[in-house]
């Protein structure tokens, strides 16, 4: 989060003056090279957009925005933890699987063995 490089200087903390051959301390980050979000009076409105995240689920079986956000059964919770800890899955895949778990629970009331196996397989690193 705080590794965001300063956009004015590109992260090196200074601005080269091509004409004079001098370099001055970046006024934006004050030489730290990091983007200073706290600078008062300067807001990057294009970046900070609160609470307007589109949950675009293409081809997924994600639970609706009003559905539960976490599994309710012990098996489901355990499975979700495995998915979250998986090194074989990308973040979006994890989210998709989590949604699948929740969705499965809501239709079956629990996680079936077949379903557990299916998710296990995906959460495991490919061989
Ligand atoms: Zn800077």
Question: Helix count, per DSSP?
Answer: 3
Unreliable sequence segments: 55-64
User: What's the story with the biggest beta sheet?
Assistant: 2 strands, antiparallel
- Say how many strands there are: 2
Bound molecules: zinc ion
Global outline: rod-shaped
Structural class: mainly alpha
Q: Strand share of the residues?
A: 5-15%
Side by side, the strands of the main sheet go: 1-2
State the order of secondary-structure elements, H for helix, E for strand. Answer: EEHHH
- Measured distance between first and last alpha carbons: 33 Å
Could you give a short description of this structure?
With 127 residues, the protein is mostly helical.
Any overview of this molecule?
Mean pLDDT is 79; it is low at 55-64. Strands 1-2 form a two-stranded antiparallel ribbon. The chain is rod-shaped, with a radius of gyration of 23 Å. It contains 3 helices and 2 strands, in the order E-E-H-H-H. The chain is mainly α. Helix 1 (74-85) packs antiparallel against helix 2 (91-108) and helix 1 packs parallel to helix 3 (113-123). The chain is 32% helix and 6% strand. The protein has helices at 74-85, 91-108, 113-123, and strands at 14-17, 22-25. Residues 6, 8-9, 13, 26, 28-29, 33 line the site of zinc ion. Zinc ion is lined by residues 6, 8-9, 13, 26, 28-29, 33.
